[in-house]
Amino acid sequence: MPDRWKFLCAGPEDSPLEIEGVRIWQHKWLRVAQDQVEVIDPLYGQTYQLEIYEIHHDDRTIKFAAGEFSASVWGFYVVTDEC
What we know:
Layout: E1 4-12, E2 18-19, E3 22-23, E4 30-40, E5 47-57, E6 60-70, E7 73-80
Antiparallel strand pairs: 1-7, 2-3, 4-5, 5-6, 6-7
């Protein structure tokens, strides 16, 4: 079954955004293979192809999709198990 992606937020580059309690702009993002995910910006309805990344922090792997929606404004999505 493919991953389901849920919109988390959109905001400026280097913002204090946290995913699972980790400030993502303070860590190296590792691109997951050549995978991409197609998402829709919930505010404007525009479709984007976002890269999938992981951050390894302590004993955890944090997975998310991210991409630049406009100049220095990024959109972030996380995997959800909701239907």
